[in-house]
Amino acid sequence: MQNHHLKEHLYKILVIGDLGVGKTSIIKRYVHQNFSPNYRATIGVDFALKVLNLDQETVRLQLWDIAGQERFGNMTRVYYREAMGAFIVFDVTRPSTFEAVTKWKEDLDAKLSLSNGKHVAAVLLANKCDQGRDVLTNNGIKMEQFCQENGFVGWFETSAKENINIDEAAHCLVKHIIANENDLLQSEVADTISPQQESSRGGTCSACFRS
After folding, report:
1. According to DSSP H, which parts of 33-152 are helical?
2. Residue 67 DSSP one-character state
3. CATH number of 7-184
4. How many CA atoms lie within 13 A of 49 on its CB side?
5. How many other β-carbons are positioned within 10 Å of the β-carbon of residue 75?
6. pLDDT class for 12, splitting at 50, 70, 90?
7. What is the separation of C-alpha 81 from the centre of its chain, rounded to a whole number of angstroms?
8. Would you list the domain boundaries of the chain?
9. Under 8 Å CB-to-CB from 126, ≥6 apart: which residues?
């Protein structure tokens, strides 16, 4: 008997946030299991591939590094196109990078949505937690509230250097992406089999509206 439920998924995931918050380090840690304190700023778009095996399904994550384009303030739509999820990263030692989080989230939501109109799943990463905790992340309740108000599915204190919570954060994001994908598939199926849809469309030919 064929193992028919061995499905493959490829998800494009964006890693966005201000310059120097550790986006490249997070990707390198997650994909290559290493850390170097001196990555030079990446120029152009860089992406890395991580392959996961979840419940008999192969999930390929294509992690896109925003790569030095932060200074242009506005990411192009091309970069966002077809992404299914995002990490928005800030540096716990630099409050201004947290203030920028809402700007990144608004930019993401303005340029990208799922085919059903919903926002893509986004997880907030409070990075460099090995270098000290900031006032905000010390107050988990405040962070939860911030996530709810700004439409994040969750948040994690991470350290690419010490390998803290990177896998957990990715797992959380993938779980939400799969749930979103299942919702999309179900609504597509509903569209094709629901006879009600047909009658409510009225079946009027657009040619009938010629004045």
Report:
1. 77-80, 95-99, 101-111, 135-138, 140-150
2. T
3. 3.40.50.300
4. 6
5. 18
6. very high
7. 12
8. 7-184
9. 90, 92, 98, 134, 136, 137, 143, 155, 156, 157, 158
Distance CA 52, CA 75 (A): 28
Max mean pLDDT range (52-56, 83-87, 114-118, 184-188): 83-87
Q: Which two tokens stand for residue 108?
A: 């993401």
Q: Say what the pTM is.
A: 0.80
d(CA 185, CA 121): 16
Answer whether residue 37 shows pLDDT above 90. Answer: no
Place of tokens 């299914």: 84
Residue-wise pLDDT tens digits, 47-92 = 788 888 887 788 999 999 875 565 555 567 778 889 999 999 999 9
Residues 6+ apart with CB under 8 A from 54: 174, 178
Closest CA to 165 of 121, 127, 122: 127
